[in-house]
Write a structure and sequence with these properties.
The complex is a heterodimer of chains A (113) and B (113). By secondary structure, chain A is an all-beta fold. Chain A is 0% helix and 55% strand. With 113 residues, chain B is mainly beta. Classes of the chains: A mainly beta (113), B mainly beta (113).
């Protein structure tokens, strides 16, 4: 089983709709979870972090975490063409010594005007 | 706003040559990382660095790769003898603490001819 899994997409939604992006992870010890947005040819940009079960809202973005199901999601409300990008789910595996972020393969989102 | 700085933005080299990619992490950060992304593929972890030593490295980070923090600000990635398959975007990243957010530099596009 891969450490972090995402549907590769592309996920196409019409402008103004809700885009729903999903991510599952395998390491039950993971404690912090992140969503990054990456435009083509650019570096990943952090858009949301979530540390505890439940929902976290920031503007048009809502992150949801369910540690029992090892599941993280990102909802984008009122999707705009500028939201078209690849969305990377990242999981911080904490260890006593040395740790790293593990990224999923990313989901490509296309918002159609 | 503080940012991770990478130089150069583009590097072209001949196969077998040595390259050094440079990074200046955010000043109060303690954890440093190198990632790479081959065109169209996922972001791949190379190495993490903490307390002046490598804390973790991936299978990709073989004997041809090395990292160094020569002073209090720079963090470098050296590839001793580049191969065609080393062509990729290389991202430096840093974070302040164990569970903290990871911030990326804008990347160095390495092309090995």
């Amino acid at each position: 089983q891969k450490e972090v899994e995402q549907n590769s997409g592309p996920l196409s939604v019409p402008e103004g709709a809700i885009a729903s992006l999903n991510c599952t992870y395998s390491d039950r010890g993971s404690q912090s979870f992140f969503w990054y947005r990456q435009y083509s040819g650019k570096s990943p940009e952090l858009i949301m972090s979530i540390y505890s079960n439940g929902d976290k809202e920031d503007g048009r973005f809502t992150a949801q975490l369910n540690k029992a199901s090892q599941y993280v999601s990102l909802l984008i409300r009122d999707s705009q063409p500028s939201d078209s990008a690849t969305y990377l789910c990242a999981v911080n595996r904490e260890k006593n010594y040395g740790q790293n972020f593990v990224f999923g393969p990313g989901t490509r989102l296309s918002v159609l005007p | 706003e503080p940012e991770v700085t990478q130089t150069p933005s583009h590097q072209v080299t001949q196969m077998g040559q040595e390259v050094i990619l440079r990074c200046v992490p955010i000043s109060n950060h303690l954890y440093f990382y190198w990632y790479r992304q081959i065109l169209g593929q996922k972001v791949e972890f190379l190495v993490s660095f903490y307390n002046n030593e490598i804390s973790e490295k991936s299978e990709i980070f073989d004997d041809q790769f090395s990292v160094e923090r020569p002073d209090g600000s720079n963090f470098t990635l050296k590839i001793r003898s580049t191969k065609l398959e080393d062509s990729a975007m290389y991202f430096c990243a840093s974070k302040a603490g164990l569970a903290e957010k990871l911030f990326f530099g804008s990347g160095t596009q390495l092309s090995v001819l």
